[in-house]
Amino acid sequence: MKIYLMTDLEGVAGIINFDDYCSPKGRYYEIARKLITEETNAAIEGLIEAGAEEILVVDGHGYEAINPLLLHPSAKLLAGRPLEYPLGCNEEFDAAIMIGQH
């Protein structure tokens, strides 16, 4: 099973506001990056338990948020700008999941 996992920092558990958490100038930006990466890793672990064999994580946050050093090693990461729609998604995927969308 091949999974497309789209992420965005806004909407992740623990993210309270944009200015403090979602901008690289925010005082809690690095904490927010850790939160989204950990939430994504939890989803990846569940997907693996459910039989996923390939997982593409797409960092949809404009400033990029997923910490590649902390990302689950079983997943592949698509990040960087400019990302063009459909952001790597195509008919090869069996399912799509979104984390932290606003």
- Which class best fits the helix and strand makeup? alpha/beta
Largest sheet: 4 strands, parallel
Radius of gyration: 13 Å
Unreliable stretches covering 5 or more consecutive residues: none
Strand order of the largest sheet: 3-2-1-4
Shape: globular
Overall number of strands: 4
Number of helical stretches of at least 4 residues: 2
**Elements, N to C (H/E):** EHHEEE
- Could you tell me the strand content as a percent range? 15-25%
Protein model, in words:
By secondary structure, the chain is α/β, with parallel strands linked by helices. Helix content is 25%, strand content 21%. The protein contains two helices and four strands. It has helices at residues 18-21, 29-49; strands at 2-7, 54-59, 75-78, 95-99. It has a four-stranded parallel beta sheet, covered by helices on one side. It is globular and about 40 Å long.
List the helices and strands and how they pair.
Blueprint: E1 2-7, H1 18-21, H2 29-49, E2 54-59, E3 75-78, E4 95-99
Parallel strand pairs: 1-2, 1-4, 2-3
Summed up, what is this model?
With 102 residues, this protein is α/β, with parallel strands linked by helices. Helices cover 25% and strands 21% of the residues. The protein is globular, with a radius of gyration of 13 Å.
Label this structure with key terms:
102 residues, alpha/beta, 4-stranded parallel β-sheet, 4 strands, 25% helix, globular
